Amino acid sequence: MKAATPAEPRRAWASGFTLLNDRRFWLAFAFLVTLLGFPRGMLTGWITRTGEVYSTTHPGGGDFIVFWIASRMLLEGHLSGLFDPSQFSRYIIDLYGSDFGVRWLYPPHFLFLLAPLGLFPYLVAYGLFMGGSLAAFLFVAARVWGDRSVALWLLIAPVTALGILIGQTCFIVGALFVAAIYLWDERPILAGILLGLLTVKPQFGVLIPLVLLLERRFLVIAVASVTATALIGASILAFGIEPWRAFLFGLQDPTGAILLSERDAFLSVQMTVYGAARYFGLSFAAAAGLQGMSALFAVGSLVYVTLSSARRDTKAAMLVTATYLTLPYVLYYDLAAPTFVALWLYFGHGRRARPGIAVSALLVGVASISFINGAATTLWHVNVAPVAFLALAVFLIWSVGRETSPGFDRFENARP
């Protein structure tokens, strides 16, 4: 029998640690650490604390109070007060003794989705809204992915815990955004309908028309336009023109107060270049200038990637990334779509080769950025969230060169 060389015992010893070489282990480990520690201390402490970002002086769900109150006001015939910040505040104070600093900032046709919630007690409505929207997001993710495995990862992802605890619209936005851009090749009519529905939070579709025009997806554009027009028209028929006038011209003060806020607790959970610059202490003008530069870089990068012959999933990832680099206002619960993109790239979905260690670490960071940013703001008073999106954009630009090179494997160039 051949004697073992000195290298063989080392290989045998290393083989006992194959779990540590499994990217599923490291992703699960990162998500576990996040769930135990985001964003400022142990999770249980975060749930029960009170303050500017989250409050437990009313039943759970944090921001869900906005949607439930909106439904109640609509059903009780107080629609005009919904778009009046002072009346909206008084309505909440009458119920809970404090308005928690929240306001209604959404277009009138969003009320079609929210109207039934006011028929139920707060906690029942909260469960229905969050449970239904999360189920929709997981269904869409599994449909786009091709199997249910991604749903398990999304269930333990930071965005899911944050979305549920805060009671926000992240799952609705994620489902509409992901389904539309990943399915518009095979289901252009459905994609157009979903993009029309995405106008309930229109800022997340800011770059989609550009991509649709560059790729000459005129059917998607037409269906999305018809869907959005129908929703707006239906809301005018149902509620009148006044809510739209108030939405377009009457919410400048609360919107401006959000963008001009100097509260550290608020700026520390913004995921944008503007938010990071303001948190660092820069003036509004300087932060806006940096945000403008970020938007120019994002749009230029998006045009370059879209017009290239790179893989379809690379283009979809660039659209999501560019959107988050363009918007001046994104909070830490608005990360459903970037989390899906990070998982797709991290597992090398539909590809022969998975990313290396450095890129894998970046993608885990993007999927866990709420915790990483929470730790960075706590320890060093630095908002690092936009750095992750900038790095992801650079990686995707680099990927175009690789995917369009003459020696690139044809299998890799095929659409997933």
From TrEMBL:
Keywords tagged on the record: Cell membrane, Membrane, Transferase, Transmembrane, Transmembrane helix
Main location, first listed in the record: membrane
Topology term for the membrane: Multi-pass membrane protein
The organism's place on the tree of life at top rank: Bacteria
Signal peptide start and end residues: none
GO CC field: plasma membrane
GO MF term list: hexosyltransferase activity
Matching Pfam families: GT87
Transmembrane segments: 25-47, 110-140, 152-183, 189-212, 219-241, 279-307, 319-347, 353-372, 379-401
Subcellular location: Cell membrane
Family from the record: Belongs to the glycosyltransferase 87 family.
Protein known as: DUF2029 domain-containing protein
Organism: Afifella marina DSM 2698
